[in-house]
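TL;DR need structure tokens for one chain.
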Amino acid sequence: MKVETYLFGSVEISPEKVINFPNGLVGFEDSKRFMLAHEEGAEHPTSFTLQSLDDPNLAFQIADDILDVTGDATKAGKRLQKDAEAGKATFVSLLGLDAARARAAELVAQAESHLQPYGAAATNLIAAARFAISRET
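>> reply
TL;DR here they are.
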């Protein structure tokens, strides 16, 4: 199916790649269908986004905002601090670095809590969320 996204424009996604949150996400209860997206053509993507399929303007990339400020360009495989140079509003510019890190950890904990009813079926998604806030690339 074809969907519109905030960062990637119009993309094609197979139905089995859709991640369903039956009750939506806390604060975003109307968005129930999501996908994990990344830049095309990269052998090892450096950025992942949890993109709502119900609202093209809703995409979560908090860890990437932190990495843009604190990361090592060599490890990340991309130029960093582009957001600040562009004057882009990010979680770090709005909340500050420590608060953005805390908010990212809080959102992962919330995601884990919401995924608990799915048991083993949610293991990979929980691991992806934990990885997203601890990665260096």
